[in-house]
């Protein structure tokens, strides 16, 4: 068993039953010209997550532990895009419209891809999802249960949107999540901090919060 220093108390997992979730490290959220910027966000804020997440990815790869990447996006014909998602807000470009990295949040466009530093390698699951949560309208739960995964190490963007939806969905399904604070990021620092605080409050009501260093230090 491996025990990681975390809030509100140490997180213990069996390495035979753990997986790394890398949520939506897509160019559309992390680079200029993508969906995140179309909503008026400073996308550079998310880039601090790349280096620590790369170290965690390297750890999982070197140990042979499973890695699952998710990508938020839609079919090219947009048949899986609810009008409520398409029409809300006042972005400079809407989902499906042509931007500098191709059509925003459309599967197959350059912007929909994962940033090169964290790109999946052969054998890693890449899961496309139309919503914010990674369990909604995907086979994530089946994939995890088929492999006997009970514990998740969670990285990704953004903390209070897709990470938060996913860890809440995971919690309700009985999975134990360790969310790495430096491997998750938000356009809004205060939302990042609040979301992390909500996860670990009330005796880890949603999950545990730790850091990449704490995880790496815990591995013999
Ligand atoms: C957002 C996400 N923020 N991946 N998506 O719309 O968090």
UniProtKB/TrEMBL annotation:
Is Transmembrane helix set as a keyword in this record? no
Asked whether the UniProt record includes Hydrolase among its keywords, one would answer yes
Q: Which InterPro entries match?
A: Isochorismatase-like_dom, Isochorismatase-like_hydrls, Isochorismatase-like_sf
Task: Cite the Isochorismatase-like domain residue spans from the record.
Answer: 19-206
Q: Keywords assigned by UniProt? A: Hydrolase
* Pfam families named among the record's database cross-references: Isochorismatase
Q: Which GO terms describe its molecular function?
A: hydrolase activity
User: Any idea what this protein is called?
Assistant: Cysteine hydrolase
State the taxonomy lineage. Answer: Bacteria, Bacillati, Actinomycetota, Actinomycetes, Micrococcales
């Amino acid at each position: 068993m491996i025990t990681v220093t975390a809030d509100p108390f140490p997180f213990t997992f069996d390495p035979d039953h753990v997986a790394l979730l890398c949520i939506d490290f897509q160019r559309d959220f992390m680079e200029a010209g993508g969906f995140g910027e179309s909503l008026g966000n400073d996308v550079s804020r998310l880039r601090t997550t790349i280096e620590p997440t790369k170290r965690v990815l390297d750890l999982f790869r070197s140990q042979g532990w499973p890695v699952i990447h998710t990508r938020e996006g839609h079919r090219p014909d947009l048949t899986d895009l609810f009008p409520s998602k398409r029409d809300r807000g006042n972005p400079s470009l809407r989902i499906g419209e042509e931007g500098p990295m191709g059509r925003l949040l459309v599967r197959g466009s350059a912007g929909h891809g994962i940033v090169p530093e964290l790109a999946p390698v052969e054998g890693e699951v890449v899961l496309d999802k139309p919503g914010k949560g990674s369990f909604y309208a995907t086979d994530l739960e089946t994939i995890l249960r088929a492999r006997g995964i009970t514990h998740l190490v969670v990285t990704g963007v953004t903390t209070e949107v897709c990470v938060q939806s996913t860890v809440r969905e995971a919690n309700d399904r009985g999975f134990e999540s360790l969310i790495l604070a430096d491997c998750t990021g938000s356009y809004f620092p205060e939302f990042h901090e609040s979301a992390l605080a909500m996860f670990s409050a009330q005796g880890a009501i949603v999950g545990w919060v730790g850091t990449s260093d704490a995880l790496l230090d815990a591995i013999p």
